[in-house]
Records
---
Amino acid sequence: MNKKLAAALSGGAVLVAALSGCSGNSAPKGPDPKLVSWAKSVCDAVPAQDAKIKAANAAISTTAADTAKPETLQKTDSKAFQDMADGYKAIATAVNEAGAPPGVSGGAKRLGDVVKSFNSLSTSYADLKKQVDDLDTKDQAKFASGLHDVATQMTELEKKHQSGTESLKALQQGEVQDAIAQQPSCKKVASSGASSPSAASTAG
């Protein structure tokens, strides 16, 4: 069952990569300096949280063997869910504190959609952590059933991932995309996270 859970979690970094996945076409004179400053404040917050989310995915994959002890699975999955909840929350906070991108039509609403999506994901992972913590490791059958339920919810969470990805794409318009593309921190996430979403297709 935990293999299914690991497969579902492997798509966790999709939203983070979406923030930096589009390189864009640089305008001849370059984006507005104020927009570049905004992009830097957002992108600088991404790498550490992206690394935390990827580490959580890796931890679950490492303990995904059917022979892993229930106590080990519970402890690992619980910490992973907490790290993912914290990671998405931190990104939402960073984007919110950066404010709406300067000079972007409807920027405040677009930013609000991004923050809402990430906060929703954070809450969902926190809820899954609680479910994992409440599983009875002494009863193999109940534990396996509970873990299966968690994995099922993870596949359903893919809709939230997709919604968040779309909200990020909507925020990246015109010079916003160019400004983000200039940031070394976002370029780093884009290059390191290019293959992260691939295993998400195995979920379910």
---
Amino acid sequence: MFPWDQIDTVLLDMDGTLLDLHFDNHFWLSLVPQCLSESRGIPMEQARKLVEQAYAEVAGTLEWYCLDYWQRTLQLDILALHRTLVERIQLRQDSMPFLNALGKCGKRRILLTNAHPDSLALKLEHTELAAGLDEILSSHSTGHPKEAQAFWQQVITKFGLDPGRCLFVDDNEAILEAARQAGIGHQLGISNPDSRQPHKQFQAFPAIDDYRLLLEDLLAASKNPPA
């Protein structure tokens, strides 16, 4: 699927790409409306509509991913609520085999996430994800979400990347497009970000539902480097 001999660095999203998105979907679409309903004494359906409207207003911006923003906006202790669901924070079963194979093949592995630093820290605390990564960056430290070209410009400079020799993996097609526009040479979608939801269809990028589909070609390329 990819010319691995032409890829030095693999850039990876976190939620839905390396971690099962079920945690986040359950948190933001079920637990938050439930807690808002209880805190304001309003029907669940009204609370659900309120949060959905609030989400839509900032979709694609850094605020959408910011726990501090949602704590102020909804008047809920968002991080404390995260901690009530830590048992739902799960790695995809195929993530560590893929990350370990990348490391074995000498590929640089960089996590690029829109997750707030507090959410990122919690997820790293409750998984072994960090063991399979060389670098980790939250977009909050750049001041721009991954949807913005300014984010990619900072990433390329910060890590000294040759963008044409990078592969970027994400479950969000709009963010894959932002990476392509920034000159990232290869993109890959994840079609099953939430293990409990139907597969997604990608229109403009190749997509897989299991990293193990990549391992044979990846390992073969490492055994037969170009002359």
